[in-house]
Amino acid sequence: MNCVNKVVFLGQMSIAAMMFPIAANASETGGHAGEAEHGPHIVELFLGVTSADHNGHSQQAGSVGASYRYAFNHTVSAGVLAEYTGGALDDWVVGIPVVFNLGHGGWQGTLMPGFEITSNHEEPLFRVGLGYEFEFDGYSLKPELNVDFVDGETVYVLGVSLGFRF
């Protein structure tokens, strides 16, 4: 997949991801954009470990990442994510996460189209995740488990995000 096709693909996915929250927000608030309790902007820093099974060999490495999301309402937020995994895996994951608050507790589900980028190749991926956000005064901590489906393989990413709202 060449660079132009990737940009078009991510653009299409971001438009699709944005349409649902905007429509849901309009029906919930009478057409006016709602704000989360502490502001609609969310920045998260991630620290964790990635475990992948490549050709029968299990590999694990540390991961760091950052994301920005905009909360359309209390239920849905969407944005951009970049995550680097070092060591033997040595790759980047970039994508457009759509995060859903599940109920009134701290549970959050994530759906994310994106790409895994290594020195040799670039592959489309789809991430599914589940986390629980603990809110504190001015920040949040969210232990989370993400599962990436890429090139016929399943990659597990376990870690914690430190979040800030403004």
Automatic annotation (TrEMBL):
It comes from the Bacteria. Residues 1-26 form the signal peptide. Keywords: Signal. This is Outer membrane protein beta-barrel domain-containing protein. It comes from Shimia thalassica.
